[in-house]
Amino acid sequence: MNNIQNNYLVNLGRHIRKQMRENGLTVYDFGTEERMVDKSTISRIINSKENLSRKNLDAFLETLVLKTSFCLYFHDNFFCYELIESTLELIEREKTSCLFKILAKLLREKYVDFSMLDTYSLVRIYFVNNRDTMTNNLQHFMKESLTTTMSSFEVAKLYEKWIEDYLRNN
């Protein structure tokens, strides 16, 4: 698992933890009487140490009162904003990565008048100027690509594919 995928899982765990707090839930509340999900499994998923597998997905959806896996994996615009922002910052810090080179080229082409600014500043400007477009594009891509049975690791890979394609084509 690479840093982009791990970043998605960390953000997902933070988001699930927030939903649990808002709904007054604990790790003991996941599952039904017939099939409870182990509290350590819930903790490991929330801390991005374990995959949210297909077999546990229904328990999460049911407990968090969500209709679809899309609602769990990409709950709202704010989640997407935070995810995209943290991903761009992560890419900017990994100066030797292929994605950094793609992002740096994109920024220098889009902001030729800002040659005095460093890459971090350009990333911030790019995010502020494009966050709604990126969020809409991400949500559209995921609605088309996400299946109802995808695990969190599969979604993280799909997210990585989206960010790479988006940066290459914009």
Describe what this molecule looks like in 3D:
This protein has 170 residues and is mainly alpha-helical. It folds into 2 domains: 3-68, Orthogonal Bundle (434 Repressor (Amino-terminal Domain)); 77-169, no CATH class. Helix content is 70%, strand content 0%. The chain has 8 helices and no strands. It has helices at residues 3-23, 39-46, 54-63, 69-73, 77-93, 98-110, 119-145, 152-169. Helix 6 packs across helix 7 (119-145). The two termini are 26 Å apart. InterPro entries: Cro/C1-type_HTH. This is Helix-turn-helix transcriptional regulator.
How do the helices and strands line up, and which of them pair or pack?
Layout: H1 3-23, H2 39-46, H3 54-63, H4 69-73, H5 77-93, H6 98-110, H7 119-145, H8 152-169
Helix pairs in contact: 1-5, 1-8, 5-6, 5-7, 6-7, 7-8
Provide a concise account of the structure shown:
This is Helix-turn-helix transcriptional regulator. With 170 residues, the chain is mainly alpha-helical.
